[in-house]
Amino acid sequence: MTPPDRPSPTGTSHRNGDAGTTENSILSLEHGDIHVRQDGPRDAPVLLLIHGSGASSSSWDALVPLLTTLHHVVRIDLPGHGRSAEPGGGDYAPPEQGRRVGTALDRLGVEHAIVVGHSSGGYAATALAEQRPDLVTALVLINTGPSMDAFIAPGPTGIDPAQWPPTDEQIRRFASTGFRAGYQVPQELVDELRGMTYHALTAAMQASIAYLNQRALPDRLVAVGKPLQVIFGDQDRRWRPSSAVDYRVVPGAEVDMLPGAGHTPILEDPPRTAALLLPFAGVHTA
């Protein structure tokens, strides 16, 4: 769990941690407030981290201290996740998520960023690059499924919308395929998923599926034309690990497999994830 924040009169809060000072801000945007976290030196190149469905910016906590020596790390809670409000009008589509992320970065004064998306966060990252090629320097996708053909159907979740919020055990069953076999689902993730509404969780997932069905991600990324790194745990139980090679159609794409890691290497193995990400980010810093 993250230490409690110390609110400031401006609506921004701070905490001291291993990576220095974390700044938490609530940005008032059209259709709902967005929660932003910033770590590392403000004059360093920006790494934007985007979480997946059912998670929040906290899912990056173990990785951030490994990145902040060289980068200004920005994390955003997507609409309806973490501390961000559900979107007015209920639009969870990746293009709308990308638009809101771009607006938030404009508010922060960020002109260029390497954008890192985990799982379905990679769809918001791609949508942002489609809309704002001026803003996105390069893309890193971590266990982001390239198309619905690569999806591994999960078993029963045990979550009934009529009984929301679910129990810890129901959430752990639902989230178990998000990690390698035998990995203990963190309690913080359990608590955060329970804090979501059933509509926010399912609408975000359905919007990601619709985005993939409209056009496979590798095809989108060929058109985007940005430097690309794909990191994939070879024990992923949500997306077929061999599907990572689908991204090789993108000219110059780097595809790196993490042996022994599941769907969420940012929590399962932060040091090896950072060891792959940092060299790529260093080469493509604007």
Please provide a written account of the structure.
There is one protein chain. The protein has 286 residues and is of the alpha/beta class. It is 30% helix and 21% strand. It has one domain (6-284): Alpha/Beta hydrolase fold, catalytic domain (Rossmann fold, 3-Layer(aba) Sandwich). The protein has helices spanning 94-108, 121-131, 168-175, 187-195, 198-214, 217-224, 265-268, 270-284, and strands spanning 6-7, 13-17, 20-29, 32-39, 46-50, 72-76, 113-118, 136-142, 228-233, 254-258. The model is unreliable at 1-19 (pLDDT under 50).
For this entry, give a set of tags:
ten-stranded mixed sheet; Rossmann fold; 286 residues; 8 helices; disordered N terminus
SSE layout:
Layout: E1 6-7, E2 13-17, E3 20-29, E4 32-39, E5 46-50, E6 72-76, H1 94-108, E7 113-118, H2 121-131, E8 136-142, H3 168-175, H4 187-195, H5 198-214, H6 217-224, E9 228-233, E10 254-258, H7 265-268, H8 270-284
Parallel strand pairs: 5-6, 5-7, 7-8, 8-9, 9-10
Antiparallel strand pairs: 1-2, 2-3, 3-4, 4-6
Helix pairs in contact: 1-2, 2-6, 3-4
